Amino acid sequence: MEFSFYIKPRFKLKRTHRMLSIKKLRKNYGTQHILDVPELTFDSGLYWVKGANGSGKSTLLKIIGGLIPFEGDVRIDDINLRKHPTDYRRLINYVEAEPLYPPYLTGLDLIAFFGATRTANQQQIDRLIEAFHVGSFIKNPVGTYSSGMVKKLSLVLAFIGNPRYILLDEPLVTIDKDSVPILYDLVKTFTVKGVNFIFTSHQAFEIEGAAVKELEVKDQRIWVL
Amino acid sequence: MGAVIRVLNKVLVKKFYERNVGLLFFVFYLMFGVVESNQLVSYHHALMFAVLTSPIFLLGVMGVWILYSAKYLQLVLSELSEPHNQFLKDYSRLWQPQQFWPMLFSIFIMDQPVLIYSAFIVGVGIASQLYWSTLAVFVFHTVKLVGSVWIVLNRINSLHERKSVMLLPAIRWPWRKYFPFFYVGHFTNQLPLALLFTKAFSLFAIIGFLQITTDHYDNRTALMGLLFGLMAHSVIIFESRRLEETYLTFARGLPISTVKRLGYLCLFYSLLLLPELLLLVVNKLIWYDVLLIGIFATSYLLHQHTRLYRHPFNIDKHTTYTFGLFLVSFMLVLFKLFWLEAAVLSWLTFYHYQRDYYNFEISA
Predict the structure, then answer these.
(1) Phi, psi (rounded to 5 degrees) for A106
(2) What residues of chain A lie within 8 A of the CB of B256, using their CB?
(3) Nearest to residue B353, comparing CAs of B236, B264, B246, B233?
(4) Judged by CB atoms within 8 Å, which residues 169-188 of B form the interface with A?
(5) Using one digit for the tens of pLDDT, what is the confidence trace for B209-257?
(6) For residues B221, B227, B230 and B235, what is the CA-based torsion angle, rounded to 10 degrees?
(7) Are residues A96 and B360, on separate chains, in Cβ contact within 8 Å?
(8) Neighbours of B32 (CB within 10 A)
(9) Is there a smaller number of Cβ atoms within 10 Å at the N or the C end of chain B?
(10) Could you tell me which residues are beta bridge partners of residue B324?
(11) B91 band by pLDDT with thresholds 50, 70 and 90
(12) Could you give the ipTM of this predicted complex?
């Protein structure tokens, strides 16, 4: 039985100009200079951001995800992160490499909350729960989960809603080998429907039949490989 | 043992004093700041003498000392459950006597405010030849210290089990949790004692001030009590911000408007203040005053919360600001201008929130 995880967006989007663009981006942590990106465009498809530890990969994803302050301009089409933060965040789903959730909440509490804020429907949520096999534990508090279970929950949350871009920071870390093909299938399904992915990974991201564009963060710049 | 003591002091003792500096400063002020300086010695001598001669008074004071012990024990036990402190499981590799003395030293340091005052009580007891009650104080503290060490060591030696700390039964919410309840759940599940102490202090402060009789209806007595209660909430505010930066970082990336986010916070603090407002209703304050006081109290707490988006986490600065805001508010309440303060604080809250929420970064 084939599932359709993708739910048609409830708002109109210019499908011809679905592009994430960055201009004059600068990011410092105190006196340490982390990123300096004069111009960068993410077109449609899958982007694999590579780089050494501490090079700024996660920082780049957090900036694009609208989580941390920065200098410069980040937008999807004409929706600017600074000027229209809520509209922009409707188009982006982000999941951290090592997500932390309140230990007293259940997975279901978080899924319901994410579903409400991203206007997802129950059908999509149920299918994601089934796909990642998290149904057996999501009614328990997150504090009782193993790190792999937390990661699976975070991946369920990453796919909820109708995003244009999904940002996955080290998605393959801590998940078991059975979950990797499930993640790849979801990425393929969503890509076909026009959702774009930007991910970081120290492991090879091998999705059969999908062209993965590679970037490298090095010396504060982003290089197209 | 020096290295072990240094680590314990950094992980447990320092954290305890950092978190409670405001409360300790406040208690110190109540004990020594409100008495005329030329009467300070005689006042405390009389107080200590009363403690030693009245068994009921002594029991009451011992109850307060136990509450203080529960406060540092709660912090120590919750810190031991934190993932970043799991390295302390290596402490269980020491022999029992080697475990005992460094931990006793750490507990002893955390208990200093009580022990120093108790040392004076013992001194007064010996000078006054009240040997039995003096001995009772001495035995009480010895048993309390050894018992505290035993509780902590018992916990450390079973650290690998990662048991959650349950000094009070956690409140389980059977229905779907909305965002404001994420905050409430943090306190009912993770910091129940902090919540209990804060609410108890706040309610007792209001009840205490309501005992002041006035010739005609005056909402200022309730407001003064409430101000003390609001000051006690500084710990709750700080912990709420800490919660946002540890477990609620995901919420920043969600498509929620600024007004709605602030609305969630407003709802959380309104829920938190319900007991105080109900107490005012029970004490027959007119509904209009209760409504206005509710707005004032919510804006007071919200303002302190949103101010913490502006500055990196620093409990000392937060405590100093809390105390300063209390003093200014006390004057404004005296001059019946709390409505003006509510309006200013509400405006400042919104201004700070929309300007600083997305500009705050923990590493900045």
Answers:
(1) -90, 160
(2) 86, 89, 117
(3) B264
(4) 170, 176-179, 182, 185-186
(5) 888 777 788 888 889 999 999 998 988 999 999 899 889 999 998 999 9
(6) -130
(7) no
(8) 12
(9) N
(10) none
(11) confident
(12) 0.79
- The list of chain A residues with pLDDT below 50 reads 1-3, 13-17
Number of domains making up chain B: 2
Phi, psi of A166 (to 5 degrees): -115, 125
- Give me the phi and psi of A26, to 5 degrees please: -135, 140
What pLDDT score does B169 carry?
Answer: 54
DSSP A141: B
B145, B161, B177 — which closes off a domain? B161
**Is residue A199, in this structure, part of any structural domain at all?**
yes
Q: Cα torsion at A114, B310, B302, A107 (round to 10°)?
A: 20
Task: Mark yes or no for CB contact A102/B182 under 8 Å.
Answer: yes
Distance of CA A174 to the CA centre of its chain: 17
Residues on chain B touching A104 (C-beta within 8 angstroms)? 170, 185-186, 189-190
- Structurally, chain A folds into a number of domains equal to 1
Q: Output Rg (C-alpha) for chain B, integer angstroms.
A: 23
CA dist., res. A51 & res. A59, Å (int):
12
Q: Is residue B167's pLDDT more than 60?
A: no
Q: Which of A102, A117, A157 sits opposite B256 (nearest CB)?
A: A117
| Domain hosting residue A153, numbered range | 18-224
If asked whether residues B27 and B96 sit together in one domain, one would say: yes
Phi and psi at A209, nearest 5°, equal: 80, 0
Q: What are the distances in angstroms from CA B211 to CA B33, B221, B224?
A: 22, 9, 12
Q: Does A92 sit within 8 Å of B248, measured CB to CB?
A: no
The pLDDT value given to residue B1: 66
